[in-house]
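Hi all, long-time lurker, first post. I run a small reading group and we've been trying to get comfortable going from sequence to structure in the token notation. Rather than ask abstract questions, I figured I'd post a concrete chain and ask someone more experienced to write out its structure so we can walk through it together at our next meeting. Sequence below, copied exactly:
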Amino acid sequence: MTELLDRAIARVRMLPSETQDELAGVLLRLAGEEEPVDRLSPEEEASFANSRAQAARRDFASDEQIRAIWAKHGL
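-- Answer (accepted) --
Happy to help. Here is the structure in token form:
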């Protein structure tokens, strides 16, 4: 390990765990790691599971609902 990398790792060790994980993910992506390293919270996992279940049931928003959302945001 180079001195610069050793210094950087020592500095990152002093940061909060969440920040350490974010920086580790960046480093892995820069080093060519293709696997996703982001972790979902339990709430995010539940939201995705609900979305997948809705899609499986073909339970999508109607055109009218989409137009209302767009209008609400000035689109």
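A couple of things your group might point at:
The two ends are 52 Å apart (CA to CA).
The chain is about 65% helix and 0% strand.
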